[in-house]
Amino acid sequence: MKAMNILEIEHLTVSFDGFKALNDLNFSMEIGELRTIIGPNGAGKTTFLDTITGKVKPTIGQVRFKSKDIRLYSEFEIARMGLGRKFQTPRVYVNLTVRENLELASNRHKDLCNTLFRSVSVVEKRSVDELLAFINLKNKQHLKGGLLSHGEKQWLEIGMLIAQSPDLLLLDEPVAGLTDEETEKTGNLLKSLAGEHSIIVIEHDMEFVRQIAQKVTVLHQGSVLCEGDMTAIQSDPRVIEVYLGAQEEVNVDH
Ligand code: ADP
Ligand code: MG
Q: Is the predicted pLDDT of residue 24 greater than 60, yes or no?
């Protein structure tokens, strides 16, 4: 029997005033996968995430999350179905402690867990202590969010997302602006979350991609250019042409 896919995308096209940011894109991933998506600027990566979250509606084609056509639901409802998104800038409460931030995120989930959509959730909820251990901030649990380093804020936000037991977690450039050490820790954190959660990571930093990559999807001009493991991707002439060739330029501000 075919393993159930957490996400299935068919013939997805998104047009902005006639310009196709996504163009007949096909994509699927299995439950528990850690998928990395790379591609040059303007390839459609952020639009791709926006379409999965319901922020942007498909012009043509279909996105199915846990077998449900997401066109039929609002952004809020899709989130409640078990979708978590991490934005580039951390969104933690600076005047609450690390622990309070996590408690708030956990309770937010609890208040809503009886809604129709949570009933299909496959992911168990973790306690605040487990979350603290997980994101390696147990010794800073009583510190205000605003006093954390940039990297620690990123981990706290990941912890806050995990508190809501998302089945699918979307991360847009989670290591931008982090030190090498913080980057490596983030990679380890994501690797330990995979399996239990399905994860999509959009990333520019090729060192980081090499660290975490299992299966990599390359986007180019709104479509999937190719997919495979890092070795296959790196030696694919089409990828070198459209992406790796521009890498130096891309990495300048990191
Ligand atoms: P990436 O994240 O890979 O850099 P984006 O998804 O942000 O790419 O953008 C893909 C293309 O779609 C770009 O050419 C961008 O200018 C265009 N685009 C994105 N959002 C909009 C929008 N709201 N209106 C018009 N064009 C857009
Ligand atoms: Mg982007």
A: yes
Q: Is residue 41 helix, strand or coil?
A: coil
Confidence at 204, pLDDT banded by 50, 70, 90 = confident
Domains of the chain (ranges, CATH numbers): 5-92+148-244 (3.40.50.300), 93-147 (no CATH)
Rounded Cα–Cα distance for residues 236 and 231 (Å): 9
Q: Which atom of ligand 1 is nearest to the CA of 21?
A: 12
**Element housing 186 (H / E):** helix 180-193
Q: Look up the pTM and report it.
A: 0.88
In the block, tokens 């493991």 appear at: 229
Q: Are 35 and 194 in contact (CB under 8 A)?
A: no
- Pairing, β 168-172 against β 68-69: unpaired
Ligand 1 atom with the smallest distance to the CA of 47 is 6
- The whole-angstrom separation of Cα 96 and Cα 108 is 15
Q: Whose CA is nearest to atom 7 of ligand 1?
A: 46
Q: Whose CA is nearest to atom 14 of ligand 1?
A: 42
